[in-house]
Amino acid sequence: CLTSRLIPAARAVPYSNMAAALVQYVVLRGDLARPPHSWPLGAVVAQGCHAALAAVHGYREHPDTGAYLEQGDAMTTVVLEAPDENSLLDLGKLLKEKGIDHKMWTENPEGMATCLALRPYPRALVQPHLRHLRLLK
Q1: CATH of the domain at 30
Q2: Do the domain assignments include residue 12?
Q3: For 86-95, which contacts have Cβ atoms below 8 Å and span 24 or more sequence positions?
Q4: What is the tens place of the pLDDT at every residue in 10-26?
Q5: Residue 10 is inside which H or E element, if any?
Q6: Tens digits of per-residue pLDDT, 83-115?
Q7: pTM, full prediction
Q8: How far, in Å, are 33, 59, 65, 66, 89 from residue 85 at the CA level?
Q9: What's the structural domain count of the chain?
Q10: Domain that holds residue 98
């Protein structure tokens, strides 16, 4: 397995049975797929992929990230919707205030925030901060 070569086994499982509860939350702007933006589905999905990968890479040394990657095909990702750029930026500020590790993805050269991804966390630790968001549809 590729991840077993990248993540030392001693770091891979920080919580014993809590590893199964690890989840990566990705929050995409819902307005990007609707007018006036009307981005193609693939472009919106790419924003989520960029943010998720950047968060995993940025926090690759964290034990939760290693444990999450060790789950392989059992990894859980939840994709939520922020209504617009301001709500996404507000969420980023809230998460920073609460000490929740995340990566805000900004589309350049426009400098437009499009997506936010948390590093993998135990669901119970971050869900209260995201409860107000709905699943992306």
Answers
A1: 3.40.1490.10
A2: no
A3: 88/27, 88/29, 88/113, 88/114, 88/115, 88/116, 89/113, 91/27, 91/116, 91/130, 91/133, 92/116, 94/129, 95/129
A4: 344 444 455 558 999 99
A5: helix 9-12
A6: 999 999 999 999 999 999 999 999 988 899 999
A7: 0.85
A8: 13, 24, 27, 30, 6
A9: 1
A10: 22-135
